[in-house]
Task: structure prediction
Amino acid sequence: MELITIIGLTAALFTTVSLFPQLLKVWKTKSTKDISTGMFTLFCGGVLLWFVYGVFVKDFPIIFANALAFVQALIILAFKMKFK
Amino acid sequence: MELITIIGLTAALFTTVSLFPQLLKVWKTKSTKDISTGMFTLFCGGVLLWFVYGVFVKDFPIIFANALAFVQALIILAFKMKFK
Result:
């Protein structure tokens, strides 16, 4: 595999996996005061569009990474709505 | 411009701009208790790698969007370090 492909895949892995510690934190603490609703709303919209983009260009890594990011960001947003 | 290009650019705009409300929130409140250090560390690493990827493939939108995301995420992380 070329170096540039490895860099791209590692980048995708990092940004997708990054949401998990935040999800775990709100799940455990049920506290979301410092989390911005604006951030997670825009982020959900963004990764949903990336998902649509991935479907259009038939790129499985884009589809998979953004579907995973969308689900995690949506759960964080749901926690934010529930525990203001 | 093709629809798929518009979708991709809008997606990039959303995910990049999404960090700004969070940055503004921690700036104003100086409170970061509910923000995950793990999330913003992994996210900083991820967008930095996307930036390197963009430089490699000479793609200006990838370079620009991820440079902007990196700076914002790094400031949020600095606030998290300063105001535990």
Remarks:
- DSSP finds four helices and no strands in chain A.
